[in-house]
C-alpha cells in the first residue's frame, strides 16, 4: 500500500456519502442552469444582444456554479463534526491534512461533473465555443484552481462556525456577491470606477477572464484586468493569481481544521 | 502499554480539566478511569488518542509518545467514543471496511475479521443496513467491532455503556469482559458506573476535578473502608452529629455524606456496637449497617467528605 492509500480511502468515503445525498449533486446545479437556460436567453431577447452574449453568460454561470457547489460541499464538514465520523477519522493513523484533501478531491470531482453538465447544456442550446487544446488547458486550469481555492474557503468557514444555519447564512456573501462584481454578466469596466478596481483583486474575476479566454478566445476580460499587450502573459499572470488563491486557501483550511478539530 | 506522566490539559479560559496525572497500564490489563462528569476522564482519553492536544506532561501508547509520534500511537490503538461516531448513511459493513483500510489491514484479513467480529458482537445480520437505522445498543456494538477490526494493542472505551438500557448494558459488559480472552489487548475504559468498573477492571483510578485521588485494585479500595459501615439519616446538622459520634468512640475520619445521609466506615468496630451507641445518642432517624461497596469508596473520594472539616 502506498503512502497515499489512506487519501484514496478518505476520498472514497466522501464520495460514498455524497452519492447518498443527491441534493449535494443537484441543488448547486439549479441556479446556474436557470441562468444558462432561462435568464441568459431572456436577457438576449430583452437587450437585443447576440449569441456572443449567451456564450459570455454561459461561462459566467460557471463562476456561480463553482462557488455554490464548493460551499455546499463544505456543509458536509459540519455534518461530519456534529453527527458523523470525524472523531474516528481524527483517531486514525493518517495525517490530518488528508481529511481535508479527501473532501477536496470529491468536491472537485462533483464540481467538474456539474461544469461539464452546464457546458453540455450550453452546447445543446447552440452556443458556440471556440477552443483548442491550449484554450481548454486555460479553462481547466482556471476552473480547477478556482474550485480548489473556493473549497479551501468552504472548509475554513465550516471549521470556524458552529452550526449549519450560521454557515448557510454566510454562503451568499461568499459565493454570490463576488459573482456580481467579477464580470460574470457584464465586463468589469461597466462597474463604477471604484468597483472595477475592487473587481481586479477578486480571484473570480481572474478565473472568469481566463475561462473566457480559454473557451471563447475572448481576451477582453484579461485586458480589463492587466491592460497588457500579450494575451499569454496576461493569462499566465491571472493563472498565477488563481493558483496563489488556491494554494493559500488550501493551506489555511488545513491549518484551521487541525487547530479547531483538535481541542 | 500506556504510560502517563504529569499529563495536563488547560482549555481556553484557564479551565484546567486535567491537573498533572500519572498512571501506567500494563499489557493485557483492563484499567478503569472512574469519576463524575467533568472529572477529566474523557479529556484524558482524548489526549491519549491524540484528538485533544495536551498542555503539559507526556503520554506513551504502545511505546509511542502521543505528542512526538502521534501516527504510530494511533496505529496501535482504537477508540470507542462516548457519543456515536459513525457514518450514519453508510452501512455497518462500509463503516467497518473504512476503519480497516485506514488502519491498513489487508483486504482479505479485514473481510475475515469483519465476519468474525460482527458474529461475536451480534451485528452480523445488520451489517448491510444503514447505521442510521440501528438502535443505540446495536450501534455501540458495531463501534466496538469497528475498533477491533485493526487488532489494536490498546483499546480506549469512553463511557461504553452510557445511555443504554439495562439489558443491553449487561450484554455489552459481557462482550467487553470477553474481549481479553486469548489476547493481550490492553483496555482503558472510562465510566461513572461503579458496578461496571468493579466487574471489568483489574485496577481503577478515581478521578476528581482533574486529579487522580485513588488508584488501586477495586477490592483493595473497598477494603480501605473496613469490613462494615453504618448509614444513618441525621436529624439535625451533619457536623454536629459527627462530633457527637466521635465523642462517643465511633471513628468518623472517613465519614461522608450525601444529603442528610451520613455514612461512617467502622474499621474495627462491630456494626452491632455502633448501632447500639448511635441509637442511645438519638442523632439519627434511621440506621442500617452493610458491607462497603465501590460506591462508598467513590463517594468518600469525590463527594462531600466531612472529616477534614470536622
Question: What's the helix and strand layout?
Answer:
The complex is a heterodimer of chains A (263) and B (310).
Chain A: H1 5-19, H2 23-47, H3 51-83, H4 86-90, H5 96-124, H6 133-160, H7 164-181, H8 193-199, H9 203-216, H10 220-226, H11 231-261
Helix pairs in contact in A: 1-5, 2-3, 2-5, 3-5, 3-6, 3-7, 3-9, 5-6, 5-11, 6-9, 6-11, 9-10, 9-11
Chain B: E1 2-11, E2 15-25, E3 30-34, H1 41-48, E4 56-61, E5 64-65, H2 70-75, E6 77-80, H3 92-102, H4 107-120, H5 136-149, E7 154-158, H6 166-179, E8 186-191, H7 194-200, E9 203-208, E10 211-216, H8 218-223, E11 229-234, H9 238-247, E12 256-258, E13 261-265, H10 271-281, E14 284-290, H11 294-302, E15 304-305
Parallel strand pairs in B: 3-8, 3-9, 6-7, 7-8
Antiparallel strand pairs in B: 1-2, 1-4, 4-5, 9-10, 11-13, 11-14, 12-13, 12-15
Helix pairs in contact in B: 3-4, 3-5, 4-5
Number of helices of chain B: 11
Which strand order do you get reading across the main beta sheet of chain B? 6-7-8-3-9-10
Low-confidence stretches of chain A: none
User: What's the helical proportion of residues of chain B?
Assistant: 25-40%
- State the major sheet of chain B: 6 strands, mixed
SSE string of chain B, helices as H and strands as E: EEEHEEHEHHHEHEHEEHEHEEHEHE
Counting DSSP H or I runs of 4 or more residues, the number of helices of chain A is 11
What is the count of distinct domains of chain B? 2
**Which CATH-level-2 architecture of the largest domain in chain B?**
3-Layer(aba) Sandwich
Counting DSSP E segments of at least 2 residues, the number of strands of chain A comes to 0
Q: Look at the structure and give the mean pLDDT of chain A.
A: 90
**What structural class results from the helix and strand content of chain B?**
alpha/beta
The CATH superfamily of the largest domain in chain B turns out to be P-loop containing nucleotide triphosphate hydrolases
Strand content of chain B: 25-35%
Q: Can you count the beta strands of chain B?
A: 15
Give the oligomeric state of the chains in this entry, treating copies of one chain as homo and distinct chains as hetero: heterodimer
Just give the CATH class of the largest domain in chain B. Alpha Beta
For the record, the count of structural domains of chain A works out to 1
